[in-house]
Design goal:
Blueprint: H1 8-19, H2 32-51, H3 53-57, H4 66-91, H5 97-105, H6 123-140, H7 149-177, H8 181-200, H9 212-217, H10 225-243, E1 253-255, E2 260-262, H11 268-278, H12 282-295, H13 297-313
Antiparallel strand pairs: 1-2
Helix pairs in contact: 2-4, 4-7, 6-7, 6-8, 6-10
The structure holds fe (ii) ion (FE2) (2 copies).
The site of one fe (ii) ion has 4 residues, from helix 7.
Pfam family, one: PaaA_PaaC
InterPro entries: Aromatic_CoA_ox/epox, Ferritin-like, Ferritin-like_SF, PaaA, PaaA_PaaC
GO molecular function, one term: phenylacetyl-CoA 1,2-epoxidase activity
């Protein structure tokens, strides 16, 4: 697996495959740095899916009707599935799910900053679907063509489900906007809280994103953070209008010259603090994940014992 004494033909084949926008598969030779970068990115993505179950899972028991409960339950379950596909993709690179989970719990690996914000009202379920799953789609659709095969293929399935998540969130907000004044106010308040953190989901600005250039050269990333953030802003504005909410940014306006919307300055100090672990819910999210891992230990042990027993029997 090591690339330390790389055969030049293997290295050339890798470069040619990436340059032709074809896929690198798990058994192909790849540079160590490519493998490392991918493990970090896929793990961070998998962790985000799993930690992301918490803020919305928080509302399953309090969803206002059986129908809404069933929808939310299915959505949160989809996120668990996304986490599992992605841990499997990371496994093909030689990183086990257990090892990655330990790195998450110890704080050595990160997950998306957005999931460190609390869900204070039921409208947050709709806003997360609309804005957070919406931002995830902007980020992830280009990843369907990423250079590492298992990651790209996982993304195809995930993106189909994310687009359904976005619509269910939007539909929930639409329904609330047709309701009472109190419901409309609840939606607006929720959008006010989530808009800026959703913009932060695309990561630091391009001039402060040191890994972007190499990741783009390797075909791991296909667009920069700022490009994707702009795409998300332009996409969200007409949706906000159709919904009847305002976005909490006085500097949002159409720029005829750029054929895009200008928007205000993101609070990067807040972003850095949340990434560093000082967001409103970081400690709670990790404590909850740790508890789930510890309480599930006996299930994993039993499943492992059963699997080795089966193997013995069929030998
Ligand atoms: Fe997801
Ligand atoms: Fe989702």
């Amino acid at each position: 697996m090591s690339s330390a004494v790389a055969d030049p033909t293997l290295a050339a084949r890798f470069e040619a495959t990436v340059a032709a926008k074809e896929r690198i598969e798990p058994r192909d030779w790849m540079p160590d740095a490519y493998r490392k970068t991918l493990i970090r990115q896929v793990a961070q993505h998998a962790h985000s899916e799993i930690i992301g179950m918490q803020p919305e899972g928080n509302w399953i028991g309090r969803a206002p009707s059986l129908r809404r409960k069933a929808i939310l339950l299915a959505k949160v379950q989809d996120e668990a599935g996304h986490g599992l596909y992605l841990y499997s993709a990371a496994e093909t690179l030689g990183a086990s799910r257990q090892e990655l989970t330990d790195l998450l719990i110890s704080g050595a690996q990160k997950y998306s900053s957005i999931f460190n914000y609390p869900t204070l009202t039921y409208a947050d379920v709709g806003t997360i679907g609309w804005l957070v799953d919406g931002a995830a789609i902007c980020n992830q659709v280009p990843l369907c063509r990423t250079s590492f095969g298992p990651y790209g293929r996982a993304m195809i399935r995930i993106c189909k489900e994310e687009s359904f998540h976005q619509r269910q969130g939007y539909e929930l907000l639409m329904t609330m906007m047709r309701g009472t004044d109190a419901q409309r106010a609840m939606v607006q308040e929720s959008v006010n809280r989530f808009w800026w953190p959703a913009l932060m989901m695309f990561g630091p600005p391009d001039d402060a994103s040191p890994n972007t250039e190499q990741s783009m050269a390797w075909g791991i990333k296909t667009h920069t953070n700022d490009e994707l953030r702009q795409r998300f802003v332009d996409m969200s504005i007409p949706q906000a209008k159709a919904l009847g909410v305002t976005l909490p940014d006085p500097d949002l306006k159409w720029n005829e010259h750029r054929q895009s919307h200008d928007f205000g300055e993101i609070d990067w100090d807040e972003f850095r603090a949340v990434v560093k672990g000082d967001g409103p819910c970081n400690a709670q999210r990790i404590a909850h994940r740790r508890k789930a891992r510890d309480e599930g230990a006996w299930v994993r042990e039993a499943a492992t014992a059963f699997a080795s027993k089966q193997k013995e029997l069929t030998r």
